[in-house]
Structure formats: C-alpha cells, structure tokens
Amino acid sequence: xxxxxxxxxxxxxxxxxxxxxxxxxxxxxxxxxxxxxxxxxxxxxxxxxxxxxxxxxxxxxxxxxxxxxxxxxxxxxxxxxxxxxxxxxxxxxxxxxxxxxxxxxxxxx
Length: 109
Known about the structure:
Layout: H1 3-16, E1 18-27, E2 32-41, E3 44-62, E4 72-92, E5 97-101
Antiparallel strand pairs: 1-2, 2-3, 3-4, 4-5
C-alpha cells in the first residue's frame, strides 16, 4: 500500500469512526517506521498497523573456516525503495490480545 492509499484510508477512518490512539514509532536503528491507528470499528476495538522499511537489495554472508568463528549476515538496503506491510487486528475480550483479521474486511472492493 503506497503512501497516498494509506493516507486516504487513515483519513476515511478518522472521519467515519472514533479514533482512540494514533502513533508513529521507529525500530531497527531508525530504518523501520511503524504507524499504528487504534479505533472503535464495526466489530469493536480494532488496530490498523503499517510497517515501512527499506527494500533489501542484497544479502552478504561472511564466514570463516576457523574453529569457533561465527557466520554473519550483512544486508544491503535500497536508499529509495520501501516495502510496506499493512495489518488489521481486532481486540479479543476473551483472551485479552489482538487477533489478526483480513484487511479486505475494512476495505471492500
């Protein structure tokens, strides 16, 4: 989901439903951005989450044949391209945790 579609979806939710919490956090040394929107939806308390991070363009393995040496992985990230993942969750009162839902239940075609 690109930035325009995400902003359109967030605006639509803010206009039609009651927003309980909206926050943006950074993870993975500032490379990953997590946008969270918690709102009162048609099926109760719901959470919409978008994780944006740079596209991995290469993965380099570093290893040695010496005894006791540990292999390591070096990731090369794209400076311009991003990968976005959007997930929808519903709060379950019975077990007290977020349950993942299909995003198309919120966005009909």
